[in-house]
Write a structure and sequence with these properties.
Elements lengths: L2 H37 L9 H4 L7
Length: 59
């Protein structure tokens, strides 16, 4: 009887933690890029996952 509410609560907490984790990572990357732009330092090259193996996009 208590199983489904417990599973729902655990799932909610896991998904909330995932959203927080992704948000902090994105915010940290944004802050790094903003600081690099304001100090004039060149940004490191960012590659798309497909570029590293030579894949081409079909549009």
């Amino acid at each position: 009887m208590v199983l489904w509410p417990a599973v729902s609560l655990i799932g909610f907490l896991v998904l909330t933690g995932l959203v927080i984790l992704l948000g902090t990572h994105s915010t940290a990357r944004y802050e790094q890029e903003r600081q690099a732009a304001s100090t004039g330092r060149p940004q490191r090259a960012r590659t798309v996952a497909g570029e590293s193996i030579g894949a081409t996009a079909i549009l």
